[in-house]
């Protein structure tokens, strides 16, 4: 009998997500019209992270916003940490990315130098520097004993 190695599978899924189009679109019905609220991948960071977490039942549902995801993380047993490990969740400060509208950003901690999050430029998950080369401050990190 085999048992899934949750920790290794979870971390592999995060790393294997780089470049995938899977999280580009989330359609909702508004006044009878179907619209993509993620703008073709421009606003997909929360949907990407919550989609992976939902797959492993580590949150209650997928989310389109960072604030909704953070609420779910805290309700689902994730706790703040100052000593993150691979697979933990990173929330970055709000910044303007398209136009003047400010958006927080969320992704996965890989190492003290690297993270994976949805790139609003590439419109897919991408590996990058943890602070985007000192242009975006990490606001909070979350961990969960199930994956660590």
Task: Please describe what this structure looks like.
The structure is a single chain. This protein has about 150 residues and is an alpha+beta fold. Helix content is about 20%, strand content about 30%. It has helices at about 5-15, 45-55, 65-75, and strands at about 25-30, 35, 80, 90-95, 100-110, 115-120, 125-130, 140-145. The strands form 2 sheets. A 6-stranded antiparallel beta sheet has the order 3-8-4-5-6-7. The relative contact order is 0.20.
Label the overall shape: globular
| CATH uppermost class | Alpha Beta
Q: How are helices and strands ordered from N to C?
A: HEEHHEEEEEE
- Main sheet: which strands, in order across? 3-8-4-5-6-7
- Total helices: the number is 3
Q: CATH-wise, what's the superfamily?
A: endopeptidase domain like (from Nostoc punctiforme)
Q: How many domain units?
A: 1
Report the portion of residues in β strands: 25-35%
Give the CA-CA distance, first to last residue. Answer: 24 Å
Low-confidence stretches: none
What's the main sheet like? Answer: 6 strands, antiparallel
Specify the structural class: alpha+beta
Rounded Rg: 15 Å
